[in-house]
Amino acid sequence: MGYGNVAIKLLTIYLFTSFLADAAFALNVNFLKDSILAEFSEEEAVEFKQFVANTLDDVKDLKPVVWKSSTSDMAGKLLIMSTYSSEGVSCRRSRFIIKNAQKKEPFQFEICKREGRWAIEATPIQSFTDEDWKIFEKSIEVSLNNGVNGEELSWSNPKTGN
What we know:
Layout: H1 3-17, H2 23-27, H3 42-58, E1 65-68, E2 75-86, E3 89-99, E4 104-114, E5 117-120, H4 130-146
Antiparallel strand pairs: 1-2, 2-3, 3-4, 4-5
Helix pairs in contact: 1-3
């Protein structure tokens, strides 16, 4: 593959990721050059971008949604694992599986909506340890079994600061 083709593939990845990421992330996509994302056509990148934006806006947690390219065998599934608020912003932990006849690759992102636009963000949930998750899950269990509907839930782990 010539340099021009590589540049086109990297531009395609940029177009694909631009809705999900800020400029710094989108410009640092060279590590994805061998990824299935590099195989997206420009049209597929636009289709997938619209699919993801609509899904993030409309789909409930834990309901898988399927996407199929209109121009190739490229397909994918998006599963919103959870919806949460981080620093007052709505965020969704999202898992993607993108595949074609030759490859199948998983991706996971924390995607938050700021000023009407979804973007990949680093959120505190990414730094949770196994112990944090256990404390968090126990707090949810206690709240579900004993809490009052609409009552806020808070928890912390003094060891990690989460």
